[in-house]
Write a structure and sequence with these properties.
With 89 residues, the chain is mostly helical. The protein has one domain (2-88). It is built from 4 helices and 2 strands, in the order αβααβα. The longest helix has 21 residues, at 68-88. The relative contact order is 0.19.
């Protein structure tokens, strides 16, 4: 990662949407989120957690994957802003 940063490359971590009914079943999810934030923070990497945003059931074609409308909604309402702010930094 150090070599990449030396070349001017930036990093960000994106946690994509997941249906609420599925996220409730994931053991240790809050511990994972905290640990991810801690590790990313030590490396100066920003975490964008969209796991509880843009996650209406109608946007998924299965338990994990966004359908076409879900991808478009995710980009327009969540990801675009994160990518724009990453470019600015």
């Amino acid at each position: 990662m150090g070599d990449a940063k030396a070349l001017g490359l930036g990093f960000l971590i994106v946690r994509p949407p997941i249906p609420e009914r599925i996220s409730k079943m994931l053991p240790g999810e809050s511990d994972f989120a905290r640990e991810l934030e801690t590790i990313a923070g030590r490396r100066g990497v920003q975490v964008h957690d969209f796991s509880h945003r843009c996650n209406d059931e109608r946007f998924f074609f299965d338990t994990d994957h966004l359908n076409r409308n879900g991808v478009l909604n995710f980009y327009e309402n969540c990801l675009r802003e994160a990518l724009s702010s990453a470019r600015a930094n």
